[in-house]
Amino acid sequence: MGEAGPGPGPGPGPREAQEPEEGEAAAPGGARGGQTGPRGGIRVLKVRREPRPPPLRAARWDGGESAGTPVALARHDLGVCHGGGCCWCGAHARLSAALQRNAKRAGSRSCQSRSRVGSRERTWLKGDVGRGCVYVYGKDSAAAASSDLRLVLCTVDTQASEICDREGRKNLFLQLHGDLVRRLEPTEKPLQIVYDYLAGLGFDDPLRMQEEAANSDLSCMIRFYSEKPCQVEQMDRILLSGVYNVRKGKTQLHKWAERSVTLCGTCLIVSSVKDGHAGKMHILPLIGGKVEEMRRRQYTLAFTSAGAQAQTYHVSFGTLAECQRWHRQASTIVSMRFSVVDLSCYSLEEVPEHLFYSQDITYLNLRHNFMRTSGAGSLDSLCRSLKSLNLSHNRLGEFPVSLCEISTLTELNISCNGLHYLPSQIGKLLNLQTFWLDGNLLTSLPEEMRNLQQLSCLGLSFNNFCELPAICEKLVTLDKLALAGNLLETLDLTVLNRMSHIKSVDLRLNNLKRAAADTLEGNKSVAYMDLRDNQMTDLDLSSLVSLEQLHCERNKLRELTLSGVCLRALYANSNLLVSSLSYFAFLSNQLQCVPDWACEAKKLEVLDLSYNLLLELPSSLSLRKLMVGHNRLQSLPPLLEHIPLEVLDLQHNLLTKLPETLFVKALNLRYLNASANSLESLPSACMEEESLSMLQLLYLTNNNLTDQCIPVLVGHPNLRILHLANNNLLTFPASKLSKLEHLEELNLSGNKLKTIPTTIANCKLLHTLIAHSNEISIFPEILHLPRIQFVDLSCNELTEILIPEALPGALQELDLSGNANLVLEHKTLDIFSHITTLKIDTKPSLTADSALTSAFWSHGVAEMAGQRNKLCVSSLALGSFAEGVEAVYGMFDGDKNEELPRLLQCTMADVLLEEVQQSDTMFMSNTFLVSHRKLGMAGQKLGSSAVLCYIRNEVADPASNFSLTVANVGTCQAVLCRSGKALPLSKVFSLEQCSEEASRIKEQKAIITEDNKVNGVTCCTRMLGCTYLHPWILPKPHVSSIPLTVQDELLLLGNKALWEHLSYAEAVSAVRHLHDPLAAAKKLCTLAQSYGCQDNVGAMVVYLNISEDNCTCEMHGLTLTGPGGFSSTSTKPATPSCSSGIASEFNSELSASEVSSEVGSTASDEHSAVSLDGSLLPRQERRCSLHPVPPSSIFQRQPSSATFSSNQSDNGLDSDDEQPVEGVMTNGSKVEVEVDIHCCNGKGQELEHSTAEYKSSALVPEDDSRLVLIIRRQNSVNSNTVQRGVREKCELQKSLSTCCLYGKKLSNGSIVPLEESLNLIEVATEAPKKKTGYFAAPSQMEPEDQFVVPPDLEEEVKEQMRQHQEDRADQELKEHAVPLPEEFDTAL
């Protein structure tokens, strides 16, 4: 499927369809039959209506062309058309016509265009999942006419040769990710290639893969060409040629003459005759020379070579554009110091012919091409004077023997070519010094390699070696051996000791389990060894007496023995080392103490013991950097002597104080991080009046410091960054702040400050002020500071802002959100208009959906750029999604790009909404895969991590009202807080934290560099985007789903930077007791920055309140069931009932227009919209997710008609000005009230209990109670259901959704005040008569209705229900009961 790798740029996009050319089949709209197409003798004939024959067998459909648009041509079993009556030819005509129409409708010049497959083609495709279509583009699809774009319908067995035959082409080319273009072999199957590609992305459903293959957006990832495309810019860099007027020499003795001129490689080639293929060639080397424009002659360049005998050629061009092209390329050549020709990523199959004229080429880069090993223009004809040659990623399959004849080679890179062996002729490269063979399939090396006595660097990483190659013992000059990613299981130190010349050994990502040595002989040469990501349990490297640096992270080490005489750096984190180790260990182990002799390593400068179980430190430390964070230190040893310590990290320990002489004895200390301890005071900075402190960065966040520590800070005049967040500060003395003149960043958030001192104006270098989550009511005087860039005063008590007339030009972001009482005038907003980011609160709209969702969840988002200039993190937060009872939250981290996170922020919710409607199981995975496709060209070279959380209403599971589905790729994660404990819901897809992904990438022969990145690009193994790294980087997400319960408190989302510095438990405990989600998100980001994060950090906190107290059903007086099926009595109504005296609303599943269409009447739009405030449209009854509509086995809808006699409405209106009440339909003198029946979502025993309770209770006054009927639908199939009734009190509770409903606004603009008591009949009589309205139609069967019966009619209804109750015994005795009437005509 072609190689993936960096390329020059994205591929061109598709083109619009055009009208058919003359002589081709006509488009639909003209005569359908009797026309003959010009191509291939295909006849498009009229079709008789005959039965459709059985589907074609596989490999019977090939691509063709008609009318300048994509066409499907059927090849019959015998390959012969049967004449005018052939139904297959007619089917092709219809397909051609449909494709033509669809191409005209959906044509687009962008990769975001819709699919061009019409309905007829889709019908054909649905017949077999082995069918499909591929888009075939012309040579330059970005500029050429759309007639060059063909849509070929075929099967998975259709070969490239068959498509080429039908298209009249010689070859078919494949381009992946807008990058390299390779020629398909005749036997390759294009549609199967597409399906394999989609399956590799993560699609599992064959039908979905068929649909995706028909989408033109896919062309940004995989595209077919009928001719090999080549952009003009690429051609300019490879070869420039033409016939121009040329004059030799600087004087005018020579005349101008037309000559063939070529600029290729490093030389200007001028033919002695006009025809470039004949005559003598004059070669002018340009490296070190010059190219300049002539002023006396238009569009003329002077090319001059270097040296004392320099020659000059003047070339006159015809146009300015052509002159500029030559000048641009020639200027690049003359500026080079060496004879380097870079032809990488050009999809070359042969070396340009004119390149061989450049005899001075010494460095040739042909990486990421498709070079041939034999034939014209192949590797056989390369220049014999090359010194460096790069042929990596060329799909060679075997080593080109001709390269062994280039004896001058000193460096050869032939990585990632699928080599299984090396030829014996390799021994001829006597001058070879560097040999890279990474990413192949080698298992051994030939014995002839012993002749390479100048070889110093040998790269054999990611091959299939099972042991150290014995030939390396004979390469006496070899000092660097790379064997990462092989199959070694034992480190044979005996063999390594015999390689006395090797200094650096890389054995990462093998299967090493132990190190064996037969002798105690020491090795004095190995200074660097990398054993990361293996399976070693104990390691004894004491024989490596000269070892200076050792990497052994991510093993299973319990015991480590080293010789520390020359040791400078040791990295052993993420192991199981304990205190009994022979030397010392690093972070993420189980070390409880550090032996005193560990400090005897005199050359040791850096010691990282983070994430261990240390209780104390040795008294003697002569280190430059000491990191002991995340341990159990309760105190530090006193410092008696001066130490060279520069960096000290003490965060996340149990320290209550620091040594009194810390700042006095550690005069070189520049960085101190003591955050997340229990410090109550700070040591003095000096013993004398003048301070010698060099401290510049001080992090003291999350301690117990008070105002008493502020005076001590004055002793550090060089402070640039000061973090005092989340302490107990009440004030910051103004006199002390004024002395910190070098302060650049100040973080005082999470304290109890009421003001920021005005002396902050003395901090002229201050560029960042973070003071959120305080009690600040007065805006500080910071807008006078000349360098201020970022100000965060969110979550305070600001009421107004006093701003100067001119703001500082450096100000980029001002965060004022979370200040409830702050009101900004328009004038102030105009002044802030030039700020890049201004965050202020927007007044929430009091809509029904917002009131509904705010009761269940609320969110806060914080994003901080850190020390980077741009923010590459974006968030998605939709508290009201889909029907308004669901939510979507997401976070996207682009690492170093901001484009992809913003694209995902804008598009991913829409994709999710579409996928939810299509699938109930794979919707989240498909959302990521489709979003990956929709990134288009932006996703070819850029990538982004992503996490998406979807809270949905589980109607199918009554026991679980909400479920949370989480999907993620990359390093963004989501954590759920349940009962105060952190519950991770994501999976980190990185090489370091996911061994399965590391094994997958290793098997696929990707190059994992020493910084643990795939091809040196990213540490993530799954991302959205970065398609050029396919198949190593995939977009398929990890998906998990969990039902939400009342124990779920909050949901945390964060990017990589957040979770690298905060554990799940710490993040949960830090914010679970806060009431403001915005303040919580801000606190998480602040903690991450104080713990050492310097990158972009993003956090989102979603507070969950899934409990019965948040019921927002639009019904009252009902006994609602809780999450477990039990009734709840503490419901908060969101909409007043009719008996409350405030508002009344009757809802129905069918709108007025739907009812009228069912019974054959016509209704105007104004009859169908009614609202209590005159602005809302009628909608369905809103049920909260705690009480979803009960399933049909418990509750069914039974409509009924309650007819009342009324000649006109009570207000005397008999016109169309007044809108009818919802659910009330009028027909002359009859008012038909359509009501809803609500039934308790309980079992039969609960209903019987409610009925018994109703019988024993007395009626209450009219304005306090009402009767609710619970009726099951009866029909001819099931008539054994008995009607039951219950009664319940309900009082109106004012809320956001009901506070504005104090009057009824009519359509004519008048307001009718609602009385204290308003029963059903009074509401019905307000509806005006409609002379052309609804007629009395039979009741419609609908899934849910609710009867709201006024108290004065309860006796009559009660009598009817008693009669039903008496008939119940007789109905149960009959096996087949006689059905009751279809409708209830309840006389109210």
Automatic annotation (TrEMBL):
Gene Ontology terms, MF aspect: metal ion binding; protein serine/threonine phosphatase activity
Species this chain originates from: Catharus ustulatus (Russet-backed thrush)
Cofactor(s) needed: Mn(2+)
Residue ranges with Gly residues bias: 30-40
SUPFAM superfamilies on file: L domain-like, PP2C-like
Task performed by this protein: Protein phosphatase involved in regulation of Akt and PKC signaling. Mediates dephosphorylation in the C-terminal domain hydrophobic motif of members of the AGC Ser/Thr protein kinase family; specifically acts on 'Ser-473' of AKT1, 'Ser-660' of PRKCB isoform beta-II and 'Ser-657' of PRKCA. Akt regulates the balance between cell survival and apoptosis through a cascade that primarily alters the function of transcription factors that regulate pro- and antiapoptotic genes. Dephosphorylation of 'Ser-473' of Akt triggers apoptosis and decreases cell proliferation.
Enzymatic reactions: O-phospho-L-threonyl-[protein] + H2O = L-threonyl-[protein] + phosphate
InterPro entries assigned to the protein according to its UniProt record, in alphabetical order: Leu-rich_rpt, Leu-rich_rpt_typical-subtyp, LRR_dom_sf, LRR_domain-containing, PPM-type-like_dom_sf, PPM-type_phosphatase-like_dom, RA_PHLPP-like
Ranges of biased composition (kind: Basic and acidic residues): 1358-1377
Stretches the record annotates as Disordered: 1-65, 1187-1223, 1356-1388
Enzyme Commission identifier(s): 3.1.3.16
GO cellular component: cytoplasm; membrane; nucleus
Protein name per its UniProtKB record: PH domain leucine-rich repeat-containing protein phosphatase 2
Domain PPM-type phosphatase residues, every copy: 858-1104
Keywords, ordered alphabetically: Cytoplasm, Hydrolase, Leucine-rich repeat, Manganese, Membrane, Metal-binding, Nucleus, Phosphoprotein, Protein phosphatase, Repeat
Keyword Aminoacyl-tRNA synthetase among UniProt keywords: no
Membrane topology field: Peripheral membrane protein
Top EC class for this record: hydrolase
Annotated Polar residues bias: 1193-1212
Localisation: Cytoplasm; Membrane; Nucleus
Chief localisation class: cytoplasm
Taxonomy, superkingdom: Eukaryota
